[in-house]
Amino acid sequence: MNEKIIIGKGTKYHLNGFLTLPEDGSSKVPALVLVHGSGPADMDEKVGNHFPFKDLAEGLSDKGIAVLRYDKRTLVYEKEMKNDTSLSVKEETIEDAIH
C-alpha cells in the first residue's frame, strides 16, 4: 500500500514521495528511508526501464517493512540549484533524508 507524502513540507524545497506500507499495517513495523546517491533522481531511482527503489519498497513491504522514498532535490529544483556553488552533500542529500 502506497501513501503519497510530502518531504520537507513548509520548507523551501518540499518533495513528493511515497510511504510504502505492509498490507497489515495494524501494528508497529520497522521502517527504512531510501537515500539517493549522486546526481538527480526520481523517487523510484529510475534507470532506463528499471525502478530499483520502487522494487525495493514493494519487496520490503511484502516482508513487513515500511519504506519511504522521495524525489531528489536536485531533480525537482534543478534550475534553482544549477549555479549554486555552495551546494554540498548536506543540502543535496542529508537534509531531505532527515526531514
List descriptors.
99 residues; alpha+beta; 4 helices; 4 strands
Structural commentary:
- This protein has 99 residues and is α+β, with helices and mostly antiparallel strands.
- The protein has one domain (2-98).
- Helices cover 29% and strands 20% of the residues.
- It is built from four helices and four strands.
- It has helices spanning 52-62, 73-76, 78-81, 89-98; strands spanning 2-7, 15-20, 31-33, 66-70.
- It has a four-stranded mixed β-sheet, covered by helices on one side.
- The protein is globular.
- It starts with a strand and ends with a helix.
- The mean pLDDT is 91.
What gap, in angstroms, lies between the N and C termini?
22 Å
| Class by SSE composition | alpha+beta
As a percent range, the share of helical residues equals 25-40%
- Sheet-strand content, in percent, reads 15-25%
Secondary-structure element series: EEEHEHHH
The main sheet orders its strands as 1-2-4-3
Shape: globular
Mean pLDDT: 91
**Major sheet: size, sense and barrel closure?**
4 strands, mixed
> What's the total helix number?
4
Low-pLDDT runs of 5+ residues are: none
- Calculate Rg over CA atoms: 14 Å
**What's the β-strand tally?**
4
Number of domains: 1
